[in-house]
Amino acid sequence: MGSDMETSTKKRKLEKHLPQVQKEKSSAPEDPVEQLCTQGFVTFPGGISWEWELFAFVNKMHERYHEEVEKRLEALKEQWGDQWSGRLGSAAATKVTAEMEASGIAVYSPPDSASDSSPWGRTGPRFYVSVAGAAWKKWPEGAPAPQEELAQILWHHATDQACSGTSWPNMIRGLGWALAPPHSDPQTLHADIWGDKPRPGRVRFHHLLWKRLGECCTTQIVPFGFTDGQVQTHHFSKLERASAPGLLYDNEVLHRGAANPAKTWASTCSIELCTRTGYDQVWKGGSEDDGTYKLLPICWSGA
Question: What's the pTM?
Fold first, then answer.
């Protein structure tokens, strides 16, 4: 009797912190880790409800700065066609980054918006607002760890749990929000990162997305689309829209930001992670490991 009561109490405590997706059997994955490793994403109809200071930090930075970033980019609209990195809007992004450096904010140009029909030509810029600089100022020794239930989903494999020497095993690759200008076509279909070594049957680069005000994420994903970033025509017919307030997916799967037909800017809060496996197999010595961008460690180890 006492054992049953103890088990029931533990179950209620666990359910309190899990997204509602765990309670809705019609739409809930029985095993989010398995779903991430196979089809590459899992949606949370109840939203992201785990406790992690990083969620609150991104929300606070978005609330404080998103309108300023949008106004600065809007003022530079005539320069959106200028390309410093090969992507539309990169010249404007670089200028806004310089203007907001003191706030710990940097603006980048991710893959462009493109026509939703063949030949899928580029039609406008997309932007990504990074607050990693502000996070480094707040947590110079490493960011706080997530709630243990979330940590066990993200880093269930022993390789991604133990410290490597004096280094924490997992890191933050990106922190901020994705930003789509008004009347934007869908984003170019792409994968964010992949490596020469085959994906080892688990996630190397997690990506958490949510809307600060509770709306649904609209990111579109190709289930099982692990193609080392190679896009073919048939992938477009397989796209699925997240349509949930919270989304966790693998950055190696093909995906794109949905169209923004509204006359206002659209933004989605974002945390991108790099596991120890991802660091050792892909990041270290790769094109992005150029010494100018440091991955912020997360102070957690399951060992």
Answer: 0.88
Compute the distance between CA of residue 116 and CA of residue 88 in angstroms, rounded to an integer: 17
3-state secondary structure of 6: helix
Locate 165 and state its tokens. Answer: 């020497």
The domain ranges of the chain are 35-112+121-141+168-190+200-297
SS3 (DSSP) at 47:
coil
The whole-number mean pLDDT for each consecutive block of 10 residues of the chain, a chain of 303 residues, reads 42 38 40 94 90 96 98 96 81 96 97 88 95 98 95 94 89 97 97 94 96 93 97 95 96 98 97 96 89 91 74
The topology under which CATH files domain 35-112+121-141+168-190+200-297 is Jelly Rolls (2.60.120)
User: What tokens does 113 get?
Assistant: 């918006």
By CB neighbour count within 10 A (0-12 exposed, 13-18 middle, 19+ buried), where does 292 fall? Answer: exposed
* Calpha distance 60→136 (Å, rounded): 15
Measured between alpha carbons, how far is 97 from 108 in angstroms, rounded to an integer? 8
Round to whole Å and give the CA distance between 59 and 267. Answer: 11
